[in-house]
């Protein structure tokens, strides 16, 4: 086989101690040309009890909460009006469902805050989930609340699923091994300074790569401007070999859990939530947030300008299938 220059470049730039040799071929690309054709807007009530009102596609487009901005997909929230019934926002879900694969998300900006209130009240997520929750599983690739500094990667399943995370980066801290652990799931808190929130945005974002295989689920993060990020972004339609990515940011291996049975038929989801169970609790535990208002809902309802940075800017989401 004759390797292309691109393939050679990826191998050189990302070479490290292999985790598990696996090559993937690109099958689908969502970007500014087709993203809104491949995703549906969901306007159902937020399942976490968030102080949010998800809008339909027509409302999202007419209000400017969903659009193409400088060649990227913009998904935001209302930052103009006060709201007593929940802040209008966007939640989109892929039309296709997935049961495995490699998911490469090139994200330039995520919902956060930079003003007096910082990110208080904001609960963004890039994740996958199926219609039969929790039996079909959930993978939270990017998630956090309020002033959280680093990303938390979390899995959710029905009872009886424990994960081994020993292959993760040394900076990841396991907070729970039990994926049915109430709202918490089996989670790994990371400590990287630029993989989440305002710091992520200040660096121009980066690339999140998620490998969903039969025996493990892995998440890597490559910051914007690094050789690794550039190699993945510039790979085009070339195959990707995760063995050259090095240790993942978060690694989950089925300990007492059959991943192939527990995770299936998931949609890809992007949403910006406000308050709700987790964010509201942490709002009161955060000195900065608690000083702003008596409750998370009060802050979000009455301070729309605080949320002008509460938007996703997505360059692309590329889907790959594993080669046999």
UniProtKB/TrEMBL annotation:
It is found in: Cell membrane. Its main location: membrane. It is a lipid-anchor; GPI-anchor. Keywords: Cell membrane, Glycoprotein, GPI-anchor, Lipoprotein, Membrane, Signal. Pfam families: GH16_XgeA. The lineage of its organism: Eukaryota, Fungi, Dikarya, Ascomycota, Pezizomycotina. This is GH16 domain-containing protein. GO terms for molecular function: hydrolase activity, hydrolyzing O-glycosyl compounds. One of its GO terms (biological process) is glucan catabolic process. SUPFAM superfamilies: Concanavalin A-like lectins/glucanases. GO terms for cellular component: plasma membrane; side of membrane. Residues 1-22 form the signal peptide. It comes from Penicillium crustosum. The keyword Manganese does not apply. Residues 22-324 form the GH16 domain.
């Amino acid at each position: 086989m004759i390797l292309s220059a691109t393939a050679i470049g990826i191998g050189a730039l990302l070479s490290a101690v292999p985790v598990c040799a696996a090559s993937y071929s690109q099958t689908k690309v969502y970007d500014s040309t087709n993203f809104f054709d491949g995703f549906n807007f969901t306007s159902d009530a937020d399942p976490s009890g968030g102080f949010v009102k998800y809008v339909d596609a027509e409302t999202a487009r007419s209000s400017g909460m969903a659009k193409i901005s400088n060649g990227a997909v913009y998904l935001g929230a209302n930052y103009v009006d006060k709201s007593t019934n929940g802040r209008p926002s966007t939640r989109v879900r892929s039309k296709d469902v997935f049961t495995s694969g490699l998911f490469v998300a090139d994200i330039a900006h995520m919902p956060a805050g930079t003003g007096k209130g910082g990110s208080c009240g904001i609960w963004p997520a890039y994740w996958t989930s199926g219609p039969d929750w929790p039996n079909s599983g959930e993978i939270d690739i990017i998630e956090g609340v309020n002033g959280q500094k680093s990303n938390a990667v979390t899995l959710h399943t029905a009872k009886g699923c424990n994960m081994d995370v020993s292959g993760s980066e040394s900076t990841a801290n396991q907070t729970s091994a039990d994926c049915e652990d109430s709202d918490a799931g089996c989670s790994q808190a990371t400590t990287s300074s630029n993989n989440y929130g305002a710091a992520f945005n200040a660096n121009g974002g980066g690339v999140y790569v998620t490998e969903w295989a039969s025996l493990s689920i892995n998440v890597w993060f490559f910051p914007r401007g690094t050789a690794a990020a550039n190699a993945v972004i510039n790979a085009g339609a070339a195959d990707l070999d995760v063995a050259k990515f090095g240790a993942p940011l978060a690694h989950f291996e089925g300990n007492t859990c059959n991943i192939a049975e527990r995770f299936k038929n998931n949609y890809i989801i992007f949403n910006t939530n406000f308050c709700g169970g987790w964010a509201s609790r942490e709002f009161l535990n955060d000195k900065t947030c608690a000083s702003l208002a008596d409750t998370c809902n009060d802050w979000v309802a009455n301070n729309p300008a605080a949320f002008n940075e509460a938007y996703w800017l997505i360059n692309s989401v590329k889907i790959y299938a594993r080669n046999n």
